[in-house]
């Protein structure tokens, strides 16, 4: 059972050292660690050079989907694990993922991503309303496996055609999960494989990430889609507002009020550019 692990990197010097330290403390053997550098302009490459890793460089930024395909084409393992650079896995993270491969039709297993910072308003909002996990119970065939921390059988990723590079930095995990399930394979989510998300956000960076996540949901390339998105965002805003009031999260209310205007503005800019 050979395991390759890859980390897509783009200007991640603030995180990658801590991430790699945890990778090399895993309780199960990793046969190779690949760093896919997607055109970083900071000192990411200098930091990773301290570790026993194989570096694959993109001379220019190609996006997350392309980075995943570079890993897929160059990995040698039967299993290919993926970890975001701003994630720090628990020591038994990979071992708990691998335990779930109990039958040949299981194509992939994903773990729980816990938020490491919840002190400021933006980070708490992300924790509550943009979680990258499916809760505290094991789930067979969740909607999709989040790209932040998972393991797949490499042959099934190749068989389904690899990642769709047209999707760029968002949605490639959902797309791959959907294609695998349509091909008859199973996916497993286990909350016992834990990693910690070390990202910190401002309200503006949070809104940008949220918009990028949902850009292709009624993509705002026509006015009817923008109108639908406005209605949908207002509905979500209303529900979150009520939840924040109920749980005493009053400091999140300004974010809820700002949210629909921010997302509408981004929709309009995208519409005008396209």
Structure description:
By secondary structure, the chain is α/β, with parallel strands linked by helices. The protein folds into two domains: 3-197, Spore Coat Polysaccharide Biosynthesis Protein SpsA, Chain A; 203-273. 41% of the residues lie in helices and 20% in strands. It is built from ten helices and nine strands. The chain has helices spanning 16-23, 44-48, 64-74, 93-98, 121-129, 154-159, 172-182, 203-213, 223-246, 253-273; strands spanning 3-9, 32-38, 54-58, 79-83, 87-89, 106-115, 139-140, 149-153, 186-197. Strands 1, 2, 3, 4, 5, 6, 7, 8 and 9 form a nine-stranded mixed beta sheet that branches. Helix 1 (16-23) links the parallel strand 1 (3-9) and strand 2. Helix 8 packs across helix 10 (253-273) and helix 9 packs antiparallel against helix 10 (253-273). The longest helix is centred in the C-terminal third of the chain and has 24 residues, at 223-246.
In short:
The protein is α/β, with parallel strands linked by helices and 274 residues long. The chain is built from ten helices and nine strands.
